[in-house]
């Protein structure tokens, strides 16, 4: 199941992408319009800023803004930043691979085969959608 952190991160990014201009938006505005706790949203936006998706301006007229065009923001990258691995099992992950302790032979493991297929299809969907695709 998708975490609230990832769901709210996607909601915040789409809110920023839908703005007519790319001027900074205060956290309180995003939180109010997207029904997200300000404290929780602060931590999400900071993570997205540190990951290179958002910029921030302090002071009057400050807030968060996109530093990339929505078409250049891959939902697979957003997912990995907010949620972690796309694969549901560590042995089926491209970027976060770990051998399972309880597995004698990965090549014959039915769970790994199934979860690799789930990962591949999920990755295909996430990689083929940008922020622009889902925001507009």
Automatic annotation (TrEMBL):
Highest taxon of source: Bacteria
Keyword DNA-binding: yes
Protein name: Rrf2 family transcriptional regulator
Organism phylogeny: Bacteria, Pseudomonadati, Bacteroidota, Flavobacteriia, Flavobacteriales
PROSITE patterns xref list: HTH_RRF2_2 (PS51197)
Naturally occurring in which organism (per UniProt): Flavobacterium limi
Keywords on record: DNA-binding
Keyword DNA-binding: yes
Pfam families the UniProt entry points to: Rrf2
InterPro entries: Tscrpt_reg_Rrf2 (IPR000944), WH-like_DNA-bd_sf (IPR036388), WH_DNA-bd_sf (IPR036390)
